[in-house]
Input
Amino acid sequence: MLRGLFVTGTDTGAGKTVASAALMLHVRQFAQVRYWKPIETGIEEDDDTAAVRELAACSDDEIRSEGIRLKRPLSPHLAARLSGQPITNQKLEKMASALGAGANWVIEGAGGVSVPINDSCLMIDWIEQLGLPVLVAARSTLGTINHTLLTLDALRNRGLQVAGVVMSGEPN
Output
């Protein structure tokens, strides 16, 4: 069974990567920790794995760079479809089973909880399958209350444990 946190957001650009890097820095003080972003789109413009590596000064052992890496900055299902690389539930299960249970994992999602991964699976389905508590990253901008409450409601309706909410941006 995996230990750690799944970092999701209210949407794209909500601060998941910064929150993940902060978790790496914090957890590293008292336990072995590893970071993984299993699905990443827009990789040529924005490499979240590289950002966490740099922000948290991660060693190679702390970063799992294998995963689904798609060029176009679109939802996972559409980026995969357009690249001819479908994301199957079996592929996700195989990747997760290779993680190992020796470390605490910081797993960063793509987009928010209702983002489609493929035609039958949303990000929240993947979170549920992993069984990790969830940290929600939210922006401190207008609309955040609504987006955050909708995200929390979706997670709680699935019986998922919410570890907390972290807000990033200007105080608002």
